Amino acid sequence: MAYYKNFKTVVYCVAPWAGRVTEAELKEEIEFFQRFVGVDKVYLETFRGEWVSQEQLDMCKRVFAGAGIEVSGGITTVTPNLNDDDQKRQRLFNTFCYNNGPMRELLKQVAEFTARNFDEFIIDDFFFTQCTCEDCLKDKAAFEKEHGKAAWEAYRLAKMKEVSENLVIKPAKAVNPKVKIIIKFPNWKESYQETGYNPAEQKDMFDLIYTGTETRDTALQDQHLPRYLSYSLVRYLENTAPGRNGGAWFDPYQCYTYDTYLEQAYLSAFSKAGELMIFCWPSLYKNKFATALGFRLQEIDACLGNLGKPVGLPLYLPHNAQGEDHLEDFLGMAGIPFEPTPEFPVYAENEKSAGKSSVVIITAMALKDKNIIEKIKDFAARGGKVICTSGFMIGALEGAGSERTGDAGDISDMTGIRYRGRRFEADTFHVTWKGLHHPLYAESTRPISFPMLEHRNNASWSLINAGRGDAHSSILLRDTYGKGELLILNVPDLYSQIKELPREVLKRIRAELSCGDIYLDAKPGVSIFTYDNDTFAVYTYTASSGAAAFPDIAKVHIKGKKTALRNIAGAKKIKPLYQTDEESIFEIDIIPGEFEFYQY
Predict the structure, then answer these.
(1) Which of 79, 140, 315, 550 has the fewest CB neighbours in a 10 Å radius?
(2) 255 and 187 belong to one structural domain
(3) How far apart are CA 521 and CA 505, in angstroms?
(4) CA neighbours closer than 13 Å in the CB half-sphere of residue 226
């Protein structure tokens, strides 16, 4: 019996626990999880630096199956020291060295053993390398003799592709041809290529992929991952391998309140992940987080079936790119819905077709694409709206005519913006709107630093100015190009200060970066998740993630004359606060730590 209609709840069971748990203990623990969470499936690990015996595996599989729980396998590629030479290897993590013969043989044996026991298994996200031992240095030198001078990035991408094929996939399928192998990609997307994770190619090598959505308590842990990543990364990897992104995986570590843990689950569910992977069984057994999780998942599941396919502002993030890391997640936490994709969208006025859009946003990561200037020129010339961040503009201006932009041309053909390495601080903002005879003025509680993008008055038009005293510069600027337009969003040097922008400033930004027919006017720290059937969800983050710790009222702006907004959970209808010739405006309550679902 499935516990939920719109997703499976699954728990990962690590090898050190699986190798020691008794049958009586396991039955007692299953009763706890089924009472408070409702578990449909487990991933039972065979190896995590230590083996689980065949006898123990058989016992665990039998007991889980007897409780009506589906069982798949799992492995984690961490290793004990295998020989004296390994003692000398310096690695930040206890990951395999894939140029070490005994380690390579061990991984092959792990893959074979796991495939004999399961028709499906997942590889936890230690399946990478940052080893620079003597053997790795020699192998990299040999790689460069064949391929030319290469950074560690290129070498490791090639190495882990070879490891995937020869040490995992081929050995596993040789002993069990029907086995399906899943690769989990970590939550640290910006670092994939530095350690050998290669979604662009590994998605076609493995049967399925999986998404790490562990964001935890952002301000108090070392990975500095904004909460919205628990949604955006699932969508990015779903667009990387459509229909083959198995689920989302989160954990309780460095979560110091209920909400910092539960938010990972909420956003993963909003992304329409097929499985919600709870890591891990021994860490969640008799854990206070588990007791709250099942109740909240029931609330989400009751509404999730009413929501269509996730949609958002198309965000182009090429594979193996870096730059303005996680900027989209800070913007997502400020109320802008994104749909990240590794493919540049095709321009189309009718956005119903997959991969087509009339608008696209690009960050500095898009500079990885040597033809990016050519692409955005064509997109805008045909009538599209291209939104560029300040990081992209600075990189494009500095790289004009260089190898970075190839033969794509010069971004200065599209705008009079110039960057000369200067910064400025702003605590006063003035915002222009169509139809207003004078700007609206607002102040931030402290100065915010921006790069200074110089522009030519009347050649471009500033929608939002910012500065101190008499010195002001643009932070939202519009240029026209062909039938379309180029919009430049200047973001704070410290992305977390996006939440410190005045509400009137955020409202203007949200209106320009809206998804289709809807945008949000709310305090910072509120996300909106939009779907293709005129539905949306709203979630307000808790104080520890930078939002104000008090309830508030938000306004929802929807194009056209709408008679009502329906709260899906309670079927309550909300009448418009007021209407204009172009839109209907509704008021909704927002409460930190709470979510609501609506249809219009």
Answers:
(1) 550
(2) yes
(3) 10
(4) 28
> Do 499 and 586 sit in the same domain of this protein?
no
**What range defines the domain where residue 85 resides?**
8-305
2 domain-assigned: no
Instruction: Indicate the number of domains in the chain.
Output: 3
Would 1 be classed as within a structural domain?
no
CA nearest to 492, candidates 545, 547, 540, 446: 446
Element (H, E) at 173: helix 170-175
**Which among 311, 350, 365 is positioned nearest to 534, based on CA atoms?**
311
Cβ-contact 32, 64 below 8 angstroms: no
Contact 211, 272 (CB under 8 A): no
Q: What is the CA radius of gyration of the chain?
A: 25
- The DSSP code sequence of 103-114 is HHHHHHHHHHHH
Burial class of residue 205 (count of CB atoms within 10 Å of its CB; 0-12, 13-18, 19+): middle
Is 260 in contact with 251 (CB distance < 8 Å)? no
Q: How many CB atoms lie within 10 A of CB 383?
A: 14
> Is residue 301 a contact partner of residue 4, using CB atoms and an 8 Å limit?
yes
Q: Let me know whether 29 and 110 are in one domain.
A: yes
Q: Are 516 and 530 in contact (CB under 8 A)?
A: yes
In contact, 464 and 509? CB cutoff 8 Å: yes
Which residue, 274, 305, 336, sits at the end of a domain?
305
256-285 burial by CB neighbour count: b if 16+ within 10 A, else e? eebbbbbbbbbbbbbbbbbbbbbbbbbbbb
Residue 247 shares a structural domain with residue 156 = yes
CB 490 within 8 A of CB 475: yes
Is-contact 3 33, C-beta < 8 A?
no
Pick from 512, 530, 545: which residue ends a domain?
A: 512
Shared-domain flag, residues 357 and 456? yes
Dihedral sign computed on CA atoms, order 546, 549, 555, 559: positive
Residue-wise pLDDT tens for the chain (600 aa)? 789 999 999 999 999 999 999 999 999 999 999 999 999 999 999 999 999 999 999 999 999 999 999 999 999 999 865 555 554 555 556 889 999 999 999 999 999 999 999 999 999 999 999 999 999 999 999 999 999 999 999 999 999 999 999 999 999 999 999 999 999 999 999 999 999 999 999 999 999 999 999 998 888 877 889 999 999 999 999 999 999 999 999 999 999 889 999 999 999 999 999 999 999 999 999 999 999 999 999 999 999 999 999 999 999 999 999 999 999 999 999 999 999 999 999 998 776 556 689 999 999 999 999 999 999 999 999 999 999 999 999 999 987 544 343 344 589 999 999 999 999 999 999 999 987 878 899 999 999 999 999 999 889 999 999 999 998 999 999 999 999 999 999 999 999 999 999 999 999 999 999 988 999 999 999 999 999 999 999 999 987 554 556 899 999 999 999 999 999 998 889 999 999 999 999 999 999 999 999 999
Q: In this structure, what CATH number is given to the domain that contains residue 470?
A: 3.40.50
Place of tokens 């033809």: 371
Which residue, 248, 262, 257, is CA-closest to 293? 262
Amino acid occupying residue 125:
D
